[in-house]
């Protein structure tokens, strides 16, 4: 068999199709981890989320977290305590949505602690949400669990 221009094109096209099929199978097996189960519906209401984010921005520096070894401890500034109602902390794990955890918050003074036994090592985004005068607030903090 003689190698000519047509044979080269056939080999190239065959390898290209095999590579594309392999990539499609690989991509199809990947898990899509979204922040919320109703992610697309929330995307439609993006302007509401932008209002929540801008309304919450002044409180970002009033919330701090520390890793005590066995717990994650959140400290809230004293001026925030009167406005904190229906507080929840949602630990979002970007790499595995099965590891997401939600805690309702019971403040002791100006602190809230969560045990680390529900969290695995790695990166989480702690979404701290609360309401005040029927307005929603949300602050995101990146947490590295060691």
Structure description:
This protein is an alpha+beta fold. The protein has two domains: 1-30; 39-145, Sandwich (Immunoglobulin-like). It has three helices and seven strands. The strands form two sheets. Strands 4-3-6-7 form a four-stranded antiparallel β-sheet. The chain has a three-stranded antiparallel β-sheet with strand order 1-2-5, with no helix packed on it. The longest helix is centred in the N-terminal third of the chain and has 24 residues, at 5-28. The mean pLDDT is 85.
Query: How would you describe the shape?
Result: elongated
Number of domains: 2
Q: What is the overall number of helices? A: 3
Strand content: 25-35%
Strand-and-helix sequence, N→C? Answer: HHHEEEEEEE
Termini distance? 62 Å
Question: Largest sheet, order of strands side by side?
Answer: 4-3-6-7
Please name the CATH architecture of the largest domain. Sandwich
Helical amount: 25-40%
Taking Cα atoms only, what radius of gyration do you get, to the nearest Å?
A: 24 Å
Q: pLDDT below 50 for ≥5 consecutive residues: which ranges?
A: none
Look up the CATH topology of the largest domain: Immunoglobulin-like
**Number of DSSP-assigned strands:** 7
Structural classification = alpha+beta
**Mean of the pLDDT scores?**
85
Main sheet properties: 4 strands, antiparallel
Query: What's the CATH first level of the largest domain?
Result: Mainly Beta
CATH superfamily of the largest domain: Immunoglobulins
Describe the structure using short key phrases.
four-stranded antiparallel β-sheet; single chain; 146 residues; alpha+beta; Immunoglobulin-like; 2 domains
């Amino acid at each position: 068999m003689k190698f000519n221009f047509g044979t080269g094109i056939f080999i190239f096209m065959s390898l290209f199709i095999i590579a594309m099929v392999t990539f499609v199978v690989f991509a199809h097996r990947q898990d899509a981890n979204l922040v919320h189960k109703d992610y697309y519906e929330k995307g439609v209401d993006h302007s509401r989320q932008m209002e929540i984010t801008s309304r919450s921005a002044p409180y970002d520096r009033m919330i701090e977290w520390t890793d005590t070894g066995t717990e994650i401890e959140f400290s809230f500034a004293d001026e925030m305590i009167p406005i904190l109602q229906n507080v929840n902390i949602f630990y979002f794990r970007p790499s595995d949505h099965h590891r997401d955890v939600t805690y309702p918050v019971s403040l002791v003074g100006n602190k809230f602690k969560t045990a680390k036994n529900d969290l695995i090592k790695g990166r989480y985004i702690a979404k701290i949400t609360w309401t005040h005068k029927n307005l929603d607030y949300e602050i995101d903090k990146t947490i590295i669990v060691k």
